[in-house]
Amino acid sequence: MKEKLEEQIKIALQNLGIETESIVLEHPADISNGDYSTNVALVYAKQLSTSPRDLAEKIKEEIEKDLPKEIEKIEIAGAGFINFYLSREFFADSVKDILNQKDNWGKNKLLAGKKVMVEYTQPNPFKPFHIGHLMSNAIGESISRVVEFSGAKTIRANYQGDVGPHVAKAIYIILKDKDMIDRSQSASVVAYWIGKAYSLGSDAYDNDPEVKKEIDTINQNIYSRSDEEVNKIYDWGKKVTLEAFEEIYELLGTKFDYYFFESAMAPIGQKIVRENVGKVFSESDGAIVFHAEEYDPKLHTRVFITSQGVPLYETKEIGLTVAKFEKENPDISIVTTAIEQGEYMKVVAKAISLIHPNYESRMKHVTHGMMRLSSGKMSSRKGNVVTGESLLQDSTDVIREKVAERDLSVEEKEEIAKIVGVSALKYSILRSSIGSNIIYDFDKSISFDGDSGPYLQYTAVRANSVIKKAESLQLLITDYQLLNQIPEEITVLEKLLYRFPEVVAHAYKELEPHHIATFLTELASAFNAFYANTIIIDKDSVYSPYRVALVEAFHQTMKNGLWLLGIKTPEKM
Is the pTM of this model over 0.90? Predict the structure, then answer.
């Protein structure tokens, strides 16, 4: 509808002698001011040497010459805003469209025929799955789904640091205390203790020069594969921590198509950098550097290969980018990282653009902020240092306690605990714009009331219970074209539902899933008001089938929207 109305306005302006490529068409904050509003009269009035209000009247007259059936009326407001009111027929047809399209409701073709690779999560073997990885996963998975909903073939990729000092620090402690880890435990338990070894090794590295020398030697042996005992621990530790990560991905609802590792990307990047010395890169005191400020004054010089011949993150990033394009040749490559990596990624992107100019326009970098706890405490409910995994566990544990007394099977309670616990965290991350820092309030995140993931799920479950009841009373109809008994009054719920495809398209264009989260919260509030103030199921009312259909349309929209956030819609709660 938005596109159709934009075209009508463009034609009206053309008839008045004004050519324009873009129209600003928005939903008024107050729905009493219409369903769409435009300020074009204020923008172009000076061009025609007339007042905005007079131009608005002329545009109104032009559109009314061939008024679309979806428009009930047009009004001029204030200094020259043009407000459009959609018809009762339009809203009823929207409900039918939702119910006919079902899981396809909200999809668009912005990326039809395109291939998009999204890289996210990026936890490192031998280290804990921390809060930043949880944020990256929630954001990356949601972006992947929005891209998928926009018609693209979506490829999910994960890039992990399987070499480097962090690995050597963990292995140093394991070598010193071979009995500290019970290898018969589950992957997640063993991975926890490997993470502890890394933490202990990191402290020792920073505080003891002799230990630092030993760890540096282990690090060299990892690269050279020259120490059999180190190799055994490395191979085992990498395998078990990756298995533990897979358990977390399963809980989060993510399946990756590609796993890229630093150990494989380093030689690729090193070869490319050395081949381009004198063209893109320069030698400086034995190191290989890139003077990015020569191409953009906002950028800076960075070392890519040290004077000892060690390839740094920048070099590995070049290897990774080239590997992605060689393997899949995506039309768009999206990478999510924490915001502190933003500046060095700009330097890397500039270097890549000079080596492979055809990659530049296809690369997008999305940076996310940091998360901290509102309580200020940096420990989980069990007293452990907060990690992404411990937050997930805490969240599911509390939901498990909340549903303990419900009349549900053990399996149902466990499923609800996982689904709702995950939603609490994902929504807390996705409700804010990606670049902003998040203050995470645990109690608010698990609340079944207000601005939370469980609240959205609970509202969807409430709608589903209405549908089930209507079904038992045989009030559901399958031919939605027969919905001819429609109340004259248009509800706020109807005035929101039809906007869903616009919200999805906007979320893709901005690569900002929070637009969907915000919309779903507003939609849930409108449904709960409708639920509280309307007799939905009434065998004696001719309007009951339409009202039930409206509930179905809401449930379908909520289900599709939650899916885009990477959140499941439970049957019961």
Answer: yes
